Records
---
Amino acid sequence: MTTAIARPAEARDLADVAALFVDAVAELATLRGGGALLANLHRGGSVEESLSAALADPNTMLWCGVWEEAVVGYAIASASIEGDAEIVTITDLYTTPQARDVGVGEILLETMIEWSSARRARAIDAYALPGARESKNLFERLGLTARLITVRRELS
């Protein structure tokens, strides 16, 4: 039986992760609130530059989700200071649709929680868009609960 694994990404993984990143952005853009979230997560430069910056930043981790020796998912988490404590924010968590029922997302999320705990972070935050029930269920299954709901009315 093949099991999913999460491992730190390396420079050799950037092409695979970049392709997944493009797919993730395209999928996110179709969801209610996806455009606003993408605008808030704006990263300068190309996809490759953004991923290379994540690899180089000591307060950010980029992981690959692997199934049957193929990179089928990725995750990015960044640590920052909020008040007097470190908080980790999951900015990216994506798996291919074909890999969503084999545990790749769960192992990536578990790995991010372990990394955050090892850093002695006070909390870990993530984003789930309205209607993204699979994401919400995954987060809740591993102990992340909603603490803020943002509502919006477009005026133009």
---
Amino acid sequence: MNSLLKKLTAFFTRTSPDNPIPSPLPILKFWEISSPKDNVQFLQLLSELLPLGSTLYLEGTTIAEDVKAYLKARPARPEMAIPRGTIWPKPQCFHMPITTENTAGLIDLSEHHAEPEICSHLHAYHNGQMYLFWYDAFFAGPKEFLYLSQKIPE
């Protein structure tokens, strides 16, 4: 188990007032994938890639007002505590059902906004299991990765 996974496992077992539900990191086997270069294509694949009924978690401190309004209008009941990726300033966090329609709207918004105006961190889960976690989402640095559950075939 690499050091990032060890840190994330410890991090995911913590709770906070915003996320009172303890949730151990349920991914022990994951694919480490380089940050996608095409954000629109990545968002298009979400509803195809993840199990039906999955939830998208978006977090950020610079989310645009119209993006916030879009996410607030499509809430999912949080089923998992997701540790915040930003300590200060306090980020806004949204849980949204992953559907073709919801993803299409997010794609439309992403075509008119810089990535930090969509989110800073992006995760997806289903039935209490993390399927994707991506801290510093859309930052395409040379050592930036997203992690995808190996329950999704290669």
